[in-house]
Amino acid sequence: MARYTGPKARISRRFGEPVLGENKALQKKNHAPGMHGRGKKRKQSEYATQLAEKQKAKYIYGLLERQFAKLFDKASRKKGVTGEVLLQLLEARLDNTVYRMGIAPTRRGARQLVLHKHITVNGEIVNIPSFTLRPGDRVGVREKSKSLEAITNSLSVQGARKYSWLEWDGAEMEGKLIHLPPREDIPENINEQLIVELYSK
Q: Which of 55, 108, 137, 190 has a CA that sits 20 to 30 A from residue 62's CA?
């Protein structure tokens, strides 16, 4: 599945925040990218604001348009607040959960680990980054991959991160999705209501 592979700094500067991870470009330049980036900011239309929020969510979680639209359709058919359900589905993706558990330092890195068959779900190797986890599912590092430098380095640095909906056993290199996260626990700066309004048009 294709994904965005262009310059991360450009995306971060477009939204004024480190959408694709920490970026020094934000500290150096406080204006938008491109030759007209320094010009006066025009007031965005309602549609442009909604579209920008959707684009930001897509970049953060590493999805392309078709995937994101399918996920929104799935969220809209489930019980509950559509925007919150959408974020829960994004958080329940395997690549995102691998990132949240600290097995990889970035979502891109997590996606690579999944694709290269280093990750297991309930003891079985799963190489589909978009695989949706359910509460109770266990995510671990494959036995042969536990000594992989990229994983051990990430866990030594990222291991301190704790999320209320995830459980992690460092000795076994395995974690568990306890429950889907409530909106207030999801740390991403996304206004999901704008995305709902965009798709409702």
A: 137
Q: Which of 99, 113, 167, 177 is nearest to 141 (CA)?
A: 113
| Domain count along the chain | 2
Residues 102, 85: one domain?
no
For residue 42, what are its two tokens? 């025009």
pLDDT tens, position by position, 53-84: 999 999 999 999 999 999 999 999 999 999 99
Q: What are phi and psi of 192, to 5 degrees?
A: -65, -25
Distance linking the first and last C-alpha atoms of the chain: 28
2-27, pLDDT tens digit by residue?
Answer: 566 666 676 766 667 777 666 555 55
Query: How far is residue 75's CA from residue 69's CA, in Å, rounded to a whole number?
Result: 10
3-class DSSP state of 7: coil
pTM for this prediction: 0.83
Are 104 and 82 within one domain? no
- Sign of the alpha-carbon dihedral angle for 112, 118, 121, 124: positive
